[in-house]
Amino acid sequence: MTAESKLVLQANKSAKIIKSIHELYGMSLQKAADIYYQSDTSELIEEGVADLQCRSDKYLASLIWDEYHEAHKI
């Protein structure tokens, strides 16, 4: 797999997770993207840590949502 194809797959995964956050929690795509990119979990996904990129988009969206709530005490 080339570096370029890895970047494409990673961008696609990020987009799907953002869309899942948007759909599951009823917020704008912009807000969902902000939550995603500010999360520690997104960094781990992008680094390929613990094969998180292999988990379902909805599962990862729920992890990121939980992380967001914990960080903001909502």
Q: Alpha-carbon distance between the termini?
A: 41 Å
Overall form = globular
Q: What is the radius of gyration?
A: 12 Å
* Integer tally of domains: 1
Beta-sheet strand percentage? under 5%
Briefly note the structural class of the backbone: mainly alpha
Helix content: over 70%
Quick check: average pLDDT? 92
The beta-strand count equals: 0
**How many DSSP H or I helices?**
4
Low-confidence stretches: none
Taking the sheet with the most strands, its summary is:
none
Element-by-element helix/strand order: HHHH
Structure description:
With 74 residues, the chain is mainly alpha-helical. The chain is built from four helices and no strands. The protein has helices spanning 3-25, 29-37, 40-47, 57-72. Helix 1 (3-25) crosses helix 2 (29-37) and helix 1 (3-25) crosses helix 4 (57-72). The longest helix has 23 residues, at 3-25. The N and C termini lie far apart (41 Å).
